Structure formats: C-alpha cells, structure tokens
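Hi R.,

As promised, here are both runs. First protein below:
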Amino acid sequence: MIGTNDRLAPNSGRLSRPSAIKTGTEIPVTTLSNLVYRLNEQTIIDNISLRLSEKRIGLVGCNGSGKSTLARLICGLIKPTSGKIIVDGIDVSKDRKSAIEKVGIIFQNPDHQIIFPTVEEEIAFGLSQTGQSDSEARKEARDFLSAFGKGDWRDKPVHALSEGQKHLVCLLSVLAMKPQLIILDEPFSGPDLPTTRRLLRYLESLKEAILLITHDVSFLTGFDRIIWIDAGRILMDGAPEKVLDEFLGTMELRGQSDDFTDFAG
C-alpha cells in the first residue's frame, strides 16, 4: 500500500485535507441483520447478517454477486425486502436525512453520480440534503473547495473536467457531508494510472471508515478485513490473507473452466 506520508499537496495539482476541515472521524458500527433484497422475484441479497466496525474493509466477488446492491442498501439508496441496516444507531432505510450524514458512496462512473452543471452546485446539492438552505450550502461548498485548494473550480462546467477530475469532484462532494463511512464501488476502473495512484494516496490518508468494492485485490493491501460475497450470500469473511488466497484460487479455477455462465452478469 502506498505510504500515508506521500500525501497529496494542494498547490501542485494534488490534494491534501486541510486540518481546518472537520470530518466524521469516529468509526461507526454498521449492523446488517437478516438482510434480504429481491427484485422482480429474483433474490439479489440472501439473508446476510454482518457487524462492520473496522476502518478498512474490502468487498470482493464476481460480477452479479450482489456487491453493488449491498453497497446501495447500506447507504439507504434502496430499501431491503426484509431485515435491517443500522449505521451508528441510524436505520438508513427509514431515515434518509441522517443516513447521508453517516454514509457516503462513490460510484464507478462519475457521470452516474454528478447531476449538476458546475462543481459548486454539485457539492452544494449534497450539503442541502443535510438541511442547509441553498445559500448556506453554496457558501459552504465554496469554502470547502477553497480549503482544498480548488477554489478556482467553483464555476467550472463539470462536462469540461477530465475523468480523474470528475472522480475528485465526487469524492469532495461526499467528504463535504462529513460522513463516517465512505463506500467506493469500483472507483478505479475508469481513471488512468496516475489519477488512480493520486486518489489511492488521498484515500489512504482519510480517517473515515472505508468499504471498498473492487475486482483488483492489489488495492486491498493493508486492509483490516475482506468479505467475499457470492450469489447474494457471504461465502467467506475474515483476515485479508486468508480470504484473498481462497478468492484468488477460486477465480483461477473458474477462469480455467469452459462454463461461461458468469459472463451473463
């Protein structure tokens, strides 16, 4: 894992969290109890129970295993068919306002997340969802960008940004809401290598808890815990060395198979 001392500095085209910015640094306890999610009579999440309290957790599995659905459930973006998700005492499926103050999510494709034409508007929107007035949210968005050395981005059209810059806007939008848990759903499949390395270094410096969904296990070096999900169920959960060894071995065996069922999604 890239060292935390190699931090991103604001005035060199890089990024560093200023000490004046307050964030949700206390690691929340997230509890999933008998969680089930069905869509069109298909079971996507099948009776999952977990207690998440580590600072860095990786979530792995094949395409279609339920990883992204589980992430959206934890964020409260979709409601479970049955069961509960409690993050730091908040039922995220019932209290959306409190949920967005506890959990933030960054999607694989920033274009699926960014909805406003300028950077300031994008960051202000998230702040307005926490109960701030439009003027308060816009001011805090400007202050936040300035504190990160990106004050000149406030009026930038989002469509004119590079892929890496869009990812950074998504990250800043989430950080501005000061969540305690940040979920990243395959965030490194789009950016080029330099952008990926910069984002990795910055993410490593964060004090917030991170749940990272990824196919590339090299991003999980130094993590505290790995959860392997398959067909909507937890197949393995524990220390990274043990889980990833089993996971990679199984993926290798599946890669040697002539069964193309997994390619259906």
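And here is the second one, sequence first, then its structure tokens:
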Amino acid sequence: MINIQLINLTSVGVFGMVLSAAFCDILWTRKKVLAMSGGIAVILLFQGIVYFGINADIIEELYPLITHIPLTVLLCILYRKFLWPAISVLTAYLCCQVRRWLALLITAVFAGNSIMQNMAELIMTLPILLLLIWLVAPAVRSVSQYPVSLQCQFGLVPALYYGFDYLTRIYTDLLLEGVLVAVEFMPFVCSLSYLFFVVHISKERWTRSQLEQTQAILNLQIGQAVREIAALRESQEKTSAYRHDMRHHMQYLFSCIENGQLGQAKGYIREIYSETEANKVTAFCENEAVNLIFSTFAKRAEDSGILMQVRVRIPQFIPVSETDLCVLLSNALENALYACREQTKKGRAGAIGVSVYEKKGKLFLQIINSCGEDIVFDRGIPVTNRSGHGIGVRSICAIVEQYSGIYTFSVKDGQFILRISI
C-alpha cells in the first residue's frame, strides 16, 4: 500500500509539472528541455527526502515549498516572465483534480478502498495528461498572449481553488467537518465565474457586432467609391470619344449645309445633343458627390421604368463627411430602387421621391418609395431574412447614430418612408 501511495505521489507530481510546462508558451529547445527535466528530477528528489527522511505525513503541507514554488521559479527562468508561469502552475494544480475526482467516482461506484483509488489515479494519469496537452494546452497557451488584466482574470479561479484546497482540506479540516462557509465557497466561486463569463461574452459579442458593422460600412464605402470611379471613367471615355469624333461630326454637318440639307443637319445636331445629355451628370445641387450619386441612381431608375423625383437643396460644404453621405444616400437609394423593382415585377407602378435639404447646420433627408405590404419591423427598424440583405439598413443606422442624429422607418398606404435628421 505504501509503495502504491509513493508511486501515485510521484506520478501526480510529474503530471502537474509536465502540464505546467505545457501551459507555458515556451520555445522548447534542447537546452530548455534538459533544464526542465533536470528541474523536475531535483524537485522529485526533494519530495523523496521529505517523504523518507523527515515525515511522510507532512509532505502535503510542505508541497507548496518543495514543489510549486521551485517549479514556478524554474518556469520563470525558462519563460523570462513571472505572472504566466505562476498561473500555469495554479491551472495545472486545478487540472490534477480531474484524475483525483474520477478515481474517487470509480472507488465509490465499486465500493473500493484507498488502494483502488490509488490504482485508478495511476491508470488515468497518462491518458488524462496526454488529452490535456493535446486539447487544452494550446488554448491555455494562447491566453498568455492576452493583456495582463485578462491573464489575471483567467488565473483567478485556479488561484482561489488552490487557496481553498490548502486552507480547508490540507491545513485544516473545515471541509471534512462540514463548515458551511467552506462547503459553499467553491459553489459561490463557480456561480460568480459563470455570471462574469456571461457578462464578458455579451460584451465581446457586442464588440464583435460593432466591428462587423464597421467592416460592412467600410466595404460599402469601398464599393461606392469603385462605382463612382467607374462612372467617372465611363464619362471620361465617352467625352474622349466625342472629342475624337468631333472632327467627323463637323465634316458631316459642313457637307449637309454645303449641299443645302439643313433639315438633316438639324436632326443630326439634335441626335448628338440627346446622346450628350443622356450621359452627363445632372447638377441637382452644389455638392458634386451628391450630384454624381443622384445622377447614377436616376439613370438606373429610368432604365428600370421607375419614376424618380429629386429635390435637393444642399451647399457644397455640409456637416456630414462626404464619405458618410455617399454611403448613406447610396444605401437608402439602393433599397428604394430594389423595392420599386419588386413592385414592377408584379405589374405595379414604382416611384421614388427624394427630398434633401440643409438648414441651420442640420441635414434632413426623406425618401419615399413604392413597396409591398410584407415589410417586417423589429424595434422600428425593417428586417429581412434574405441572404445578403439588411446590411444597408444597419449601415444607415450606424452612420446616423455616429452623428447623434435621428432616423425613422415607416410604411403608409403602400409607401415606404425613410426620414433622417443629422
């Protein structure tokens, strides 16, 4: 029995020390492996001296002095940091309870004695160690790259359990005596840790949602910039083509006039004028970026057979950044155009009415468009389950909130109404 206890004590010591080293993000060179192996051998030697030379019954009381502190110092030297090696040792100590509890469960199920418990712990030591190194150690090591505050949060539960175990089970008998404060302490820690975990996860999810929303806005801004560049390039190419063809146009007109074909010359001039007007950017207001956006969407609406009326009164300089304004207008008009196209597919008329003006440093926008009756709202915001849709509305809300503005979405008499004030 004594031999089994001694072997089990040695195995749990090796288990904890190897696992502590696995939890540290150390680049294990041959020199460091040898140093770690030598350190483990020295610690085991100290344990043997205490067990055989002093008193076997006090080895648990002296374990922090002869094992945990030397192991932490050794890992600090190899890792060249202090905090994380200490957390690794505490975490490994917590993991040692896995093999102990499973052995206690087996002993209780089969009504065994201390010999069975020691045998069960010995048998499970290597499989559990390998499983923890393979599955758990990489995740634990990744925490060492987090800020110190998060490392401390991670090490709080192992540290509390370490102190609780030694104070209530090894140095005193509070746990065995059933003192309620001792019995209920770890359930209290588990409850507190769970609540903290829920709050932390909720905060992380909100942060991730904000980052995703920001990324979506950036992607939309990039897409709008690409569309604007493409529109400008197309306009430039057409202007270059007209300039190149101007000589031919003048020669043709000169021939018509010289031959007395004035009617044909007038018709040719009207044709050239119509083509030129169809491709120019309409000046809705003083802001060139706004003119380009409205011209693009007005052309798209016309091509789709949708009536689009625009009333704009905004100066060149407005209280909203040009990038945010482009994203805001593009998303709102894109949604309106999509809704109108859906109506035209059903044989109904589609129309878009836009009103934008600036007054006393505030920008006001209203877009009214034809829509169906199946629009669903969630807390006043239209939602959809169509894949790839809904980002535009979120972007609009994010930009308006960025400027501490106000937005409203509503449906009345088959018309969708968007009002914005920023």
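A quick note on the second one: Strands lie at 307-313, 351-359, 362-370, 376-378, 381-383, 406-412, 415-421. Let me know what you think.

Best,
J.
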